[in-house]
Amino acid sequence: MFDQVMARIAGRFRRVEPRAAARSYLLGLLSGVERKNCWQLAEQAGHTRPGPMQRLLRCARWDADAVRDDLRAYAAEHLGTDGGVLVVDETGFLKKGRSSAGVQRQYTGTAGRIENAQVGVFLALATSRGRALIDRRLYLPEHSWSTDPERRNTAGIPETVQFATKPRLAEEMIEAALDAGIGASWVTGDEAYGQDPQLRAALEARGIGYVMAVACSMRVRINHGRTSVRADTVAGRLPATAWQRRSAGNGAKGPRYYDWAWIRIGTGNHRHLLIRRNRSTGELAFYLCWSLTEVPASELVRVAGVRWSIEECFQAAKSQVGLDHYQVRHWTSWHRHITLAMLALAFLTALAADAARERPADAHQLARSSDPITLTVPEIRHLLAALFNPPAVTPTRPLHWSNWRRRHQATARRSHYRRRTASEPTG
After folding, report:
1. Which terminal CB of the chain, N or C, has fewer other CB atoms within 10 Å?
2. How many CA atoms lie within 13 A of 72 on its CB side?
3. Residue 332's closest CA among 101, 27, 50, 25?
4. What is each CA distance from 10 to 13, 72, 245, 299, 321, in whole angstroms?
5. DSSP 8-class letter at 37
6. How far apart are the C-alpha atoms of 60 and 20, rounded to whole Å?
7. How far apart are CA 121 and CA 138, in angstroms?
């Protein structure tokens, strides 16, 4: 299956050298290397220097967006479209300095606070067979980057790339996925995307349903009323009989049960406000829902529960295939590393999906069986790391790399000291 993945993307590389480097890079991402940056991936591949990996990300001639298209089609083929949901969300990449494309002090959920970071907006495909990241956009802050030509040029940001809000980036990715034939019936996302009326209107225009989280302050019209009411006010007026206990899907510890209520809003029959209540704390969450045809409340609850699958994708991508291990600053390099990491994760997800096909579907049969659980993404990567492990090497190679790293680090330290000394005022 790995050879099939490489055959799928081989035509995106004009020369054999970057094609071979891409294969080594992907194998390195699937390996047990502690930090999946160019240095360690080059050492893993048996190179004497990181040059081939760095050239692959920076200046080799290949189209990361075309590989992204291959990845998207590959994920759809292996995950199918059964109950397909497109999930949009963002994740942060903590950075030092101010030279990396798109970096600035901004809030990121990765740290849970304002930090110096890059932010990527991602699209995931979630079906009954699994989930995978299928598209990505690097968010470019408006004031610190969009209006600074010199900074943009240094980071390699194309002139055609202009400021776009995160919902606009999400809309671009969703439109591209639908145009490519991804057979998803729903879109879901958190408040940052649910609060955007233009994104919701674009989805309705495409005839794709959505279950989008919104703030408690969102105002809705109920009972065909002319005045709007806050969502939390609506929830406070509901009788006890309006709440139903339903599962939002299985988690690590079993079904995730919440209390749910739904209310028709607007003037049509296909708009709803869905409200989730935590059974222990009473905390409320709100979702605006729209569908082309009338659907039961259970379907809206299912889609709302799928939203968390993209968080699982981020966790797996960062812990298993080094999504956030890169040490690059250039716009092109970021997109290339992220795309290859997404492809590595999609490969693992496809293996897990294919392995699950051979398992019995009856949960009771599984409970009575002494068989282990189906293969997971972390377990598959662990097995592949053993299978793809390079042969034993003499002490010469690790000693060579140790010397190379320390010489490089010494050069970097001298440069930092020289820059720091030059900036200090003289007596």
Report:
1. C
2. 24
3. 101
4. 6, 16, 50, 40, 20
5. S
6. 12
7. 6
